[in-house]
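Exercise 7b. C-alpha cells:
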C-alpha cells in the first residue's frame, strides 16, 4: 500500500513529473460526471486507428443487459456513462467498488486505514483489458469495453484516487464525499470535481439524469485539446497500461490541489483562484485520460 505521508520520490513519481503536475497557471480559459466521461470518450475516439474504431463501434452497438439502460446508452460516447447507471442494479452491485482506489493521507496524525480496498479501479482496468484481449464472448467484451472507457475516466479524476483521514473520519472521507464546501451552495468536494468545478457540459436533471447532448461535448473538446496537447511527454502514450501510475498522479493531485496541500477546511468557501486553477487541472485530466484511452484501445486492436 502506498504511504501518502512519504516523500514524493518514495511514491515513485520523479521530481520533474511532480513539478509539472502542480505548477498550474495562474489564469485559464473558461471551459467527471457524464460530461467529463463523454469528453474523455470523444478525445479518445478521435484518436483510434481504423481497426480499433470499427471494433469499438461494433461492440458498443451490441444489445447487452440491462437492456433498458443499454438501449439508452448505445455508442462510444453515451456508453461511457453506462457503468454509473448500472452500479446499483441487481447483478452489478460488485462494480461499485471498482470506480475508485482510495489512497489515504492523514491531516492530524490519525492512523491510516487499510486502503485502498483489494477491489479497485486499478485492478478492474487490468481485468477488463484482459477480457477485451482474450474473451471469445462478444457480449462479455461489449460489457468490458464500457467498463474500460468509464474507468479510464474515473482513474484520472483526482478524488477517485484519494481519501482524507482525520479524527472525524478515521476511515477516510470517501474521496471528498464526506467533505462539504461552499461554492457558495453547500456541495460535496467530490461532486464539485466530478463536474469539473462546474465547468463541464451539463445534462438533464432528475429523474433520469440524462447525459449532455453530443453537440455540447463536440464544442467543448477542441479547446481542451488545444490547451493540453498530446505531445506532453509526461502522458507516456508508449506505456498505455500503467494504471498504477495514473492513479498515483491523481492521488498526488488530490492531496496537493483538491485538498489544497491539506489546508482546505470542511464547510469553507472555495476561492476564485482555487476554482480557476482547478478547472485547468480538471480539463487536463480529461485530456490525458482521452489520449491514454485511445493508446490503450489501439494496443488492444493494433492495425
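Sequence design result:
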Amino acid at each position: 500500500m502506498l504511504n501518502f505521508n512519504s516523500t514524493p520520490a518514495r511514491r515513485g513519481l520523479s521530481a520533474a513529473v511532480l513539478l509539472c503536475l502542480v505548477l498550474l497557471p495562474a489564469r485559464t480559459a473558461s471551459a467527471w460526471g457524464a460530461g467529463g466521461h463523454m469528453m474523455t470518450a470523444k478525445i479518445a475516439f478521435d484518436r483510434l486507428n481504423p481497426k480499433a474504431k470499427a471494433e469499438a463501434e461494433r461492440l458498443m452497438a451490441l444489445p447487452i443487459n440491462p437492456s433498458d439502460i443499454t438501449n439508452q446508452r448505445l455508442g462510444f460516447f453515451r456508453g461511457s456513462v453506462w457503468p454509473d447507471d448500472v452500479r446499483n442494479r441487481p447483478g452489478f452491485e460488485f462494480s461499485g467498488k471498482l470506480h475508485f482506489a482510495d489512497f489515504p493521507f492523514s491531516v492530524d496524525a490519525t492512523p491510516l486505514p487499510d486502503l485502498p480496498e483489494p477491489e479497485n479501479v486499478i485492478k478492474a482496468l487490468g481485468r477488463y483489458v484482459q477480457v477485451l484481449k482474450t474473451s471469445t464472448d462478444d457480449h462479455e467484451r461489449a460489457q468490458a469495453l464500457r467498463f474500460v472507457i468509464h474507468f479510464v475516466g474515473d482513474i484520472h479524476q483526482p478524488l477517485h484516487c484519494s481519501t482524507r483521514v482525520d479524527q472525524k473520519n478515521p476511515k477516510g472521507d470517501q474521496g471528498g464525499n464526506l467533505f462539504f464546501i461552499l461554492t457558495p451552495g453547500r456541495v460535496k468536494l467530490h461532486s464539485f470535481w466530478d463536474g469539473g468545478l462546474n465547468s463541464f457540459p451539463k445534462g438533464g436533471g432528475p429523474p433520469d439524469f440524462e447525459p449532455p447532448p453530443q453537440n455540447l461535448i463536440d464544442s467543448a473538446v477542441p479547446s481542451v485539446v488545444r490547451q493540453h496537447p498530446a505531445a506532453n511527454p509526461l502522458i507516456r502514450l508508449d506505456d498505455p497500461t500503467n494504471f498504477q501510475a495514473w492513479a498515483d498522479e491523481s492521488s498526488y493531485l488530490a492531496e496537493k490541489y483538491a485538498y489544497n496541500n491539506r489546508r482546505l477546511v470542511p464547510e469553507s468557501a472555495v476561492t476564485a483562484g482555487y476554482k480557476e486553477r482547478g478547472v485547468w487541472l480538471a480539463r487536463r485530466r480529461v485530456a490525458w485520460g482521452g489520449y491514454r484511452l485511445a493508446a490503450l484501445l489501439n494496443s488492444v486492436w493494433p492495425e
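Instructor comment: The longest strand covers residues 104-106. The chain has one domain: 32-300.
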